[in-house]
Amino acid sequence: MYYIGIDVSKKDLSVFDGKDLKFINQEGLNAFKKYLKKKYPLSEIVIIFEPTGIYSQYLKEFCAENSIKAYIVNPKRSHNFARSLGIRPKTDKIDARTLYQFHKLTEAKDIKVPEIDQQAKTLSSYLVSYEFAVKQRVALSNHLESLRDKQLITLIKKELKRAQELEDKIFNDIKEYVSKNQNLKEDYQRLLTISGVGEKTAIVLLTLFKTYPGTNRAQITALVGLDPTRRESGTSVKGKVKISKNGKGIYRKVFYLPTVCATVHNQKIRIFYQRLLTNHKVKKLAIIASMRKILLIAHAMYRDKTEYVAA
């Protein structure tokens, strides 16, 4: 097998196969394909890369369309691997080299040609656009508060209204897409049975679970960035436990308010939350732990195709 490590960014693929290369990250990856066909039998290549949301989609589709095997590394694992090698600097070139070396830890069962789930791809595209629309609306709203000029206020209010309409339109389009696909509709409706989980949270959870099928409890927690991490060095440095905040921020943002609501109205989460407070956990940590619990409950429901069972 010929192993190739690739660090994916928005514009480029930083490639290492024994030497450092760079290719434009665009649909089809024609220049990269031309290079590979000239140098390797495609059936004997294993490409190692991290899932970086929409930026890695072209590479994943490229592997699927050309029957090229891949090993998609959890970013947390590759980060820990780099630390174990004593690699501290972080550049695209260094990351590609690190991913290349990761082949020493790969198992044959995890090396396979990626499969493209069109539903997951569509949901992810919608979610990225929705997140952009939300950020645009929030930015305009924040800017409006700082204005004093009446003419500017009128102008920004019009833009804010358009931004809100765009946000609502995208979200309604997502719901319509889900309603037209029976399997998505059933999963979505099951997630809505969790007390505290509303439409937006259910859509985000559905997209997450559909995009990363086959994940276990630890993996799905890490993908949302709710896994605990601590900075330690020898015996002198022992930092506080914090969440890693890996993965897309929208996963955590959309969870916060529903979790706060669930600590009041969801009996199972309320008991869990109150027990943490009784055990002298600060409210912030208790909320984060409750977020994690709701995530894992939803993940198990999605995996087993079951509805929520109240305590």
UniProtKB/TrEMBL annotation:
<dbReference type="InterPro" id="IPR003346">
    <property type="entry name" value="Transposase_20"/>
</dbReference>
<dbReference type="InterPro" id="IPR002525">
    <property type="entry name" value="Transp_IS110-like_N"/>
</dbReference>
<dbReference type="GO" id="GO:0003677">
    <property type="term" value="F:DNA binding"/>
</dbReference>
<feature type="domain" description="Transposase IS110-like N-terminal">
    <location>
        <begin position="4"/>
        <end position="147"/>
    </location>
</feature>
<dbReference type="Pfam" id="PF02371">
    <property type="entry name" value="Transposase_20"/>
</dbReference>
<protein>
    <submittedName>
        <fullName>Uncharacterized protein</fullName>
    </submittedName>
</protein>
<dbReference type="GO" id="GO:0006313">
    <property type="term" value="P:DNA transposition"/>
</dbReference>
<dbReference type="Pfam" id="PF01548">
    <property type="entry name" value="DEDD_Tnp_IS110"/>
</dbReference>
<feature type="domain" description="Transposase IS116/IS110/IS902 C-terminal">
    <location>
        <begin position="189"/>
        <end position="274"/>
    </location>
</feature>
<dbReference type="GO" id="GO:0004803">
    <property type="term" value="F:transposase activity"/>
</dbReference>
<dbReference type="InterPro" id="IPR047650">
    <property type="entry name" value="Transpos_IS110"/>
</dbReference>
